[in-house]
Amino acid sequence: MARNFRISVNGRSYDVVVEEMGQSAVSAPAAPQPVFMAPAAPAAPAPAPQAVAAPAPDPVAAPAAPAPEPAKAPVTGGTKITSPMPGKIWKMHVKEGDVVSEGQLVLVLEAMKMENEIFAPAGGTVAQVCFREGDSVNTDDVLVVIA
Fold it and tell me: Residue 134 has what DSSP assignment?
């Protein structure tokens, strides 16, 4: 038994004939039958929207962009604290010039929805903080340098 259908795909209509196939006595699956689609009459295009002139905005001076921070020269000596995994700096507990002792909490790194505390491996003065809170870091990025 064949049935006729009209199908619309992406705004185009197609007349499709679908034939119902009965269950056969053969156990092997039947080969797929091709589906023939004939395009129907094209639908009328939607009317184009009318352009409306917008009032011209008053000229306003653009705000000055904040000056980028000057690039810091990397510290060559000292103890470098590196990121053990990719993540985001959640909370920075030190700033440049702070004196830290061995085992002191330096920052909290958020990775995989967990807060990972990063401690100072040695005591000294924080010579450089390489990232700010909210910055993303990769494995082995230098986070803080202690001189």
Answer: T
Q: What is the pLDDT of residues 101-129, one digit of tens each?
A: 999 999 999 998 899 999 999 999 999 99
Give SS3 for 127. Answer: strand
Q: What is the pTM of this model?
A: 0.50
pLDDT for 27-60, tens place per residue? 555 556 665 555 666 666 666 667 666 666 666 6
d(Cα 7, Cα 2) in Å, to the nearest integer?
A: 16
Domain ranges of the chain: 1-22+32-43, 79-146
The answer to whether 107 and 94 are in contact (CB under 8 A) is: yes
Fold of 79-146: OB fold (Dihydrolipoamide Acetyltransferase, E2P) (2.40.50)
